[in-house]
Every structure is written in structure tokens, then in C-alpha cells.
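Quick start: read one record
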Amino acid sequence: MTFGNATTRRSGPPLGAGRGSRALEAPQIASPRLAANFEAARWDRATTALGVSLKELEVIRALFRGDSEKEAAVRLALPQRTVHARLERVHARLGVRTRTELLVTVLAAVLAD
């Protein structure tokens, strides 16, 4: 498909194929710049939906990259205690106990339309 200057490619089986699956796959965006803007917009919507600050979101995104608290602190140039405090606030705000629950909750918000 083509939209202006952006070209998207559909991956996966044709619509309606599969064993009763009606889920549509997200289009792959060919332009890296457009893909980055699309991803940033998704994260912005998730921030609003979850009620977390941009600073807290930076820490969450570091977790999505697989960073530990210590690695996130180095990547974001923050003290490790600050990273830990931000994660504690997010856990309390979202009512989750584990890092896995946190990531699942955030991922659901990011993928929601």
C-alpha cells in the first residue's frame, strides 16, 4: 500500500486465512523515519493512557530493551536509586507487583488503538 511518500507492506497470511483467527497483523512501515514516528506516537498514547510521566516512561522503555535497573541507570545517566524510585512509583500507580506485570500492562497500552 502507498500513502503519500510512505510505503507499507503487509506480512503474514492473507486476511481470513488461518484457523478461525480474525486478528489483523500490524503493517510493516518501510521508511525508518516514519516507523520511528509511528512508534513514538504509540508510546505517547500509552503514556497518556497509563498516567505515567515521560521520565518514568524512559525507565520503562529501558526495561523493554532488556536492561536491568543498573543498566538503565547507566543508559539514562541517572543514579540507580532514581531509576528504582521511578519504577516503584509506576508499580504503585498501575497496581502491579512484578516487572512482568508492569511490562504486560504497558505493552497492552502501547498496542491498544
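DSSP finds five helices and three strands in the chain.
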